[in-house]
Every structure is written in C-alpha cells, then in structure tokens.
Amino acid sequence: MNVRRSAAALAASAVLCAGAAPAALADTAPPASPSAPPVIPSGLFGKNDPTYDGVWRQSFALLAQHTVGLEPAPQAVDWLLGQQCANGGFASFRAEAGTACAETTMFDTNATAAALQALKALGGQDAAVTKAVDWLKSVQNEDGGWAYVPGSPSEANSTALVISALAVAGEKPAEVKSKAGKSAYEGLLPFQLGCSAEPAADRGAFAYQPVDGKLLANADATAAATLAGLGKGAAVVPSTTDTSAAPLACPSAGAADPAAAAQGAAGYLAAALEKDGHLTAVTPGADQPMPDTGNTADAVIALAAAGHKQSAAGALEWLKGNSAQWSKGSPAGLGTLILAAHATGTDPKSFGGTDLVAALNATGPAPQGTDTSATTVDSDKDKPSGGQSVWWIIGAGAAAGVGIGILLSGRRKKNQL
Questions:
Q1: Where in this protein does the record put region Disordered (predicted)?
Q2: pLDDT, tens digit, for every residue of 276-294?
C-alpha cells in the first residue's frame, strides 16, 4: 500500500469537476491557487506540501519505524493523533489540528485506514483505534465496499485498504456488513477479473472500478486486494515458507473465497513482474510505459504476504538499484521500501547502497535513541516519472468514464506509493 498519490493536477481536476473533495495525492504540489501552501508542522514527516498526503505519509513513516524496532518520537505520534476528528475519521490533512473538525471537513477513508494501521501497531492508542474502526464501519456502502470519499461509489483500492486496516485492528471483514447485509469481502471480490476475462493474462487481477461496464486490470488495486484477501496489512511478517505464485485457479473459487482470490491476484502480479523485473505504467506526457516504482514495491509486499518471496525476488533486486531517486526525501516512499524489505527478510539498512531507516529518520522527528544521519546513493537510473504510481491517473479516467470523478488513496497509497 503504497505510495500512490501522483498526478495531482489531473486528479484534483477530475474530482473538482465532479463536485467532490480533492483527492489525496503524493508529495506533489496541488494545482495553483492564490493561497500559500500550509506551513509544515514540526511533528510531521516530509518537507513537501502535506495537503493531500499528510496523514498518509505520517502513518507509513511511523509504521515503518515501528516495524524495524524503533520507538517514534512522541511529537510525531501526537501529530497523527491530533489529525483525528471527534467522529473517528481522518481528513487527508488538517492544518488547524487543534480545532474541531467542521461539517465541511472532507474525510478520507484511505488516510483513516493508514492511520488505523499505524496506531494499532504502535500500541497504547486503543481509544483512537476504536473510533477509527467505528467510523470506517459507519461509511461502508450498501454493496459492502468503500470509496475514497464517503458516499461515493465503491472502488477496489479503498475497499481493500479499509479491509486490511480492519483486519489489523482485529475485526473479521467477512462479518463487517453494510446496512443492506453485504460483507466487506462481498464489496471487494466483484472487482476481480475472473476466468472468462480477456486477455487471459489479466485473470486474477483486480480493477479499480468498471469502465463502461468492463473491468480493467490495475496493478495497484491488485496488490491492495491481495493483502485484503489474506486479511493482512502493510506490515507483513516474513513467511517461513516460500512457494511460486500460480495463476488464478479456474474454475475459480475466488468469487466466494477471499484467500483464493488473493492467491489468484498474487499470480497476476508475479506474471506481470516477470518481463522486466518491475511494473510499468504510462505517465502523463509519455507515449511509452515507464517503470512504476511505487506499485512494484506494493507488489513485492503483496507477494511476500502471500508466501511467494521467490516470485518477488527479481522485483526486490530491481528496487534496490532503482528506487533511490524515487524515494529520496519521501516518508511514504521510504516507509514502503522498508516494509518491502521487512516482508522479504531483507536488511533495510543496506538496501542497494542506502540505509532506508536512517534516510526515513532524517525526514522527520528522530525516533528515540537514534541519530538522523543517512547514507544514500543517487542513481542516474532513477527517473522521477517512472517512480510515480499512476493508478490515480487511471482512477481519474475510470471515474470520468462512469461519471463519478472520485479518486482513491492509496496506496496508497501513498505519496508516490
């Protein structure tokens, strides 16, 4: 669950044209406006404008620090807690965290899901966790799924992110049901491309939303859905077993079995990674696919969670040599890479010439008992455009196609995650 949040201008434009709230985007400047960007709070990770991804990047930074055994700075945890509204939900970012949330506050299911995972992992935040769980349940759509902006049509990315967060909090997604009696998994699994999908290589993948009634494979949605189907969050415990990912079993049990659906999704990701060792996407202004660093990291985490570290090995090596520029100074990017390293049993302090942990610590309040010196390597191989996950762009197109104009998080989604 990554880091996602690119193409800010396009995404925000798509949403605003539909009369919806601005989408949560990566550490990317928002569309030009007369107002100055908010001042970066002292407890917040990252130096870029947090308007669209403040809570998201903070959550991934704290979760990554905790995963490697560090105790985050109290002011960093307090900043995240201060972003929660009285009803339990989070906006993407609130500059005036000391004031009560207004009726016009634009709540963000993705930010809430990310914060929930971080706060649950840190421990000692039971009241905040319970409030976040209750809020997410309160904005579940009748079909069992969730949207980035509550009240909008469900999509796979937000549904998967919420399911993962609820599972981490100890909920059973199959028992989390809407007022219409639809479970969270009933809201997610219809987005999977099944055994009749063409081309056959897309079978097992998840779509963001239908476009003109058709499901289109989306790598980011697929990675998020893999974790959700397995009932896992972004902080994956390294598996003691390792098998190769297999294609969706047909005839498929996925329609009724979240775990089977997740394994089929993992099979799609493994096959997609085989060609180049990484995922690709077409970014704005480009006519050829470029490396997609954020979704590649998400895919590694998803494959490791499914017990397929061998299938993720090539992509992990590619990330070691091609993620330095993409993640430089990015709390969400660095946090996601740390989580990918952790999930695969890799040392995040020696990741392709970079100490990811020191680099992350240097972007925000230092964890207790550590220094903030970082060893990094800039690589000419890194292309900023290739490092940005574009499911936001795909989401914008999909949203426009069905007339809703709603984009999702993310993965993460995640600055470039």
A1: 363-384
A2: 999 999 888 888 889 999 9
